[in-house]
């Protein structure tokens, strides 16, 4: 085992790897509660049950996709990087694809499946580097920051901290409402934990919020802690349903959905891979060994997750917490996979996950993603305009795809006007055309 994972070569041991795997799991365990709540549209009122995914099935699908991704990343790529359904991607799935586009969630899963297949093909053919390099660095950072604002807005709205207002569109919620105060308290506690750099701060913050909610009678206590594994039948294989209705997938709207899933997953995976590998001193001569294997692990987990019934699976930056305590090999990812497997038996605890409990996770993840704003050249107008539109249009239109579309359309326009057309990759022109068609045929 030590030879397979190259313990001696990478200067690690079982203790460090196990501790690293456990730390990574605790740092990202919040997804087990947030993903089912997000995809089942918990807390969103006034929509038919047919638009909601079964929370229990999504819980199981989340874990199975994570296990597959972590095992493949650990055993094949030998990186201490964990995978799970991504934040931002689940928000896009629930609030844009299902609620805004009125696309059945089953067809949404088909889009996730297609994006995973395309990701795998691009990885095997080497085209992934071409596409990633074609998209300007500033727009990648803008997409990440915009998703951060969007996720935060979703969390604040769901918890009632902000609410709709006919005069001003949005306003401060009823801060005298005990449920709103619970969410505010949870966010405050999580911020304190994060500031003190406590491992697993987001997960601990959610747990404390749930405990206080139960103590004050705001959340019903679970009837049991350990229970049977929920049935995955409500979501399993539903990604193939759309194949019987070709008109649902052969249209511009579906293409935009697939491209958005693909773009965001690209950015998340590439950025996380480089960041965590650099932190672990695994980069050799400015190159990342086994990069293709790690990217394929991501695409494989996405395809498996879509078949089981969850949104796009991606690499988690929280893996850096495991690296910080000593993880250096894929053995840590295997440990994280085992932790996810054990979590299958704790589904009854999901009953305590309310909008107030998930709010701390959504807000803090938003803060971490918005940190990319400092990497954008705001002093250059031709860069600032598309970046700003990408960021601001996501929360204001409640759509990640719309934000990306605005930025990708205006980027070639401002760059050409600034006489920097030679810096524009031809792929960016093609994307601009696709997103113009998106507004013509979809947004009406």
Order of helices and strands: HHHHEHHHHEEHHHHEHHHHHH
The helix tally amounts to 18
Determine the N-to-C terminus distance.
Answer: 58 Å
**SS-derived structural category:** mainly alpha
Name the beta content range: under 5%
Largest sheet: 2 strands, antiparallel
- Helix percent reads 55-70%
Strands in their spatial order, largest beta sheet: 1-4
Question: What integer is the average pLDDT?
Answer: 86
Multimeric organization: single chain
**Global morphology:** globular
Q: Please give the number of β-strands.
A: 4
Low-confidence stretches: none
Radius of gyration from the alpha-carbon trace, in angstroms:
21 Å
Question: How does the SSE layout of this entry go?
Answer:
Layout: H1 7-10, H2 14-28, H3 31-39, H4 55-77, E1 83-85, H5 89-100, H6 105-125, H7 127-134, H8 137-158, E2 162-165, E3 169-172, H9 178-195, H10 201-215, H11 252-279, H12 291-308, E4 313-315, H13 319-324, H14 330-343, H15 355-370, H16 381-397, H17 400-417, H18 426-441
Antiparallel strand pairs: 1-4, 2-3
Helix pairs in contact: 2-14, 3-4, 4-12, 4-14, 6-11, 6-12, 8-15, 8-16, 8-17, 9-10, 9-15, 10-15, 16-17, 17-18
Membrane topology: Multi-pass membrane protein
Transmembrane segments: 21-44, 56-76, 83-103, 109-127, 139-159, 202-219, 254-283, 295-317, 323-345, 352-371, 383-411, 423-442
Family: Belongs to the nucleobase:cation symporter-2 (NCS2) (TC 2.A.40) family. Azg-like subfamily.
């Amino acid at each position: 085992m030590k030879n397979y994972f190259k313990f001696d070569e990478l200067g690690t041991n079982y203790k460090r790897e196990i501790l690293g795997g456990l730390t990574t799991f605790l740092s990202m365990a919040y997804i087990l509660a947030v993903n089912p709540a997000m995809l089942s549209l918990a807390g969103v009122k006034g929509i038919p049950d047919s638009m909601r995914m079964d929370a229990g099935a999504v819980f199981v699908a989340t874990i199975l996709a994570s296990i597959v991704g972590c095992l493949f990343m650990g055993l094949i790529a030998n990186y201490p990087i964990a995978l799970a359904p991504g934040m931002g991607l689940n928000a896009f799935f629930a609030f844009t694809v299902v609620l805004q586009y009125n696309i059945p969630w089953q067809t949404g899963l088909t889009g996730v499946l297609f994006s995973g297949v395309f990701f795998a093909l691009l990885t095997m053919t080497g085209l992934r580097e071409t596409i990633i390099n074609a998209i300007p660095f500033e727009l990648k950072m803008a997409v990440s920051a915009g998703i951060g604002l969007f996720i935060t807005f979703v969390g604040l709205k769901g918890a009632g901290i902000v609410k709709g207002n006919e005069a001003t569109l949005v306003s401060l919620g009823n801060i005298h409402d005990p449920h709103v105060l619970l969410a505010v308290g949870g966010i405050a506690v999580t911020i304190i934990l994060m500031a003190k750099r406590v491992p697993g701060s987001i997960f601990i913050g959610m747990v404390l919020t749930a405990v206080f909610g139960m103590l004050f009678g705001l959340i019903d206590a679970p009837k049991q802690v350990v229970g049977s594994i929920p049935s995955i039948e409500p979501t399993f294989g539903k990604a193939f349903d759309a194949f019987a209705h070709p008109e649902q997938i052969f249209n511009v709207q579906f293409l935009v959905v697939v491209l958005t899933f693909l773009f965001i997953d690209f950015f998340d995976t590439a950025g996380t891979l480089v960041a965590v590998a650099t932190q672990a001193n695994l980069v050799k001569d400015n190159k990342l060994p086994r990069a293709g294997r790690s990217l394929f692990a991501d695409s494989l987990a996405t395809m498996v997750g879509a078949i089981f019934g969850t949104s796009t699976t991606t690499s988690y930056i929280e893996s850096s917490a495991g690296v910080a305590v000593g993880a250096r090999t894929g053995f840590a990812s295997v440990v994280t996979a085992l932790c996810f497997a054990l979590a299958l038996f704790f589904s009854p605890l999901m009953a305590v996950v309310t909008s107030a409990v998930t709010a701390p996770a959504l807000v803090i993840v938003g803060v971490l993603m918005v940190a990319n704003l400092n990497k954008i050249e705001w002093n250059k107008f031709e860069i600032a305009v598309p970046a700003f539109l990408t960021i601001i249009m996501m929360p204001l239109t409640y759509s990640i795809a719309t934000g990306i579309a605005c930025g990708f359309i205006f980027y070639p326009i401002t760059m050409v006007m600034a006489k920097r057309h030679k810096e524009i990759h031809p792929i960016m022109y093609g994307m601009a055309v696709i997103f113009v068609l998106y507004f013509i045929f979809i947004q009406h």
